[in-house]
Request: fold
Amino acid sequence: MFLWGTATAAYQIEGAADEGGRGPSVWDTFSREPGRTRSGHTGDVACDHYHRWPEDVALMAGLGVNAYRFSLSWSRIQPSGSGPVNPEGLDFYDRLVDALLAEGITPVPTLFHWDLPQALEDGGGWLARDTAHRFAEYAALAAGRLGDRVRMWITLNEPFVHMAYGYAMGIHAPGRALMLDALPVAHHQLLGHGLAAGALRAAGAEQVLITNNCTPVWPASDSEADLAAAEAYDVLHNRLFNDPVLLGKYPDLSAYGMTNLDFVHDGDLDLIATPLDGIGINYYNPTRIAAPSSEGLPWEDAGISGYPTTAFGWPVVPDGLRELLVRLKDRYGDRLPPVYVTENGCSQEDVPGPDGVVDDRGRIAFLEQHIEAMRRAGREGADVRGYFVWSLLDNFEWAEGYHQRFGLVHVDFPTQRRTPKASYAWLRDFLSSEH
Reply:
């Protein structure tokens, strides 16, 4: 069965930051520090999904999706990131899973979508090897409660982005700016994935995935310098997180001056390369790379022109999804498991009209073109088995606060009123024609 779904993340929609026994996460700390997020926005309330989840499940049922990718809040299940479980937190997800199944919607939980418990960050966060072991314990707790009904699990969401934005550049929580010294974060997340995969399977999981954010990398020119820079960026963004999982080894990191990976212990790569039942790929746009114009990183983002852009300023390149999926097939061959597009979507400046309608025809065109690009990849041999729209709801968009709207459903944040957009109606009709 092909999975057609929508996707969300716990910190971006749940709210109820201080309710139900939930402990603080790095995003609670980060977003409450002045200057960290646009307009000082926090996810304290977000979409209030913690209280309004029945309405949101009804919206999914009305849309006609057969799968829902959401994330579990580690802080809600295990407030300090280790030790005792919080029964109220597991009860919340228990009710959500039951409600989804009652509507014929396959629950696809992600264990980690960037909201590390603050207590673990205080102990070093993902720079500390111990966090990988705590992650496996948390995975066992979640699967021990939900695994009798949840068959498909995703361990991590976009470990590249969490390393780069959270630990290297300080744009996201936890706000560290370590640049290349953040590399252990990559390894410890991947080690956590491998350990958690074992814990999930021990609890009866039938399918275990990881979700990586991937981008087709375009050299700015055919010059030797630009080609080398593009290769270096491809290694950092794509291969650093795909190669260990699929090939059991790290790519050549010499372009970054990294030859001594002393944080990699014997046996780690065997754990990381535990066979997967699928891989999640999040796609938003390609990246055009040039040789650096100054000292620092061995590449420079040259930008992409000649395409329409989203409200985020990201270029809309539907064929990039086809290119990416085919490249993955060609690069990894039979090591590549079935692929699920676990996020694809766009932000727009969505404003209800006088009649209350949100006419987001740009998003309709985006989805239509990207679904067709995915299907072209399938005709070229890519084994794609699912497509999840980001996102079900307008939500807290990390450092951008509530200024970027990705949802199929408009959320008026002061009132929490949900209004399905024109794209919701388009996708509903599309899915109806698919069944």
Notes: The chain has one domain: 3-434. Residues 14 and 49 are 4 Å apart (CA to CA). The chain has a mean pLDDT of 97.
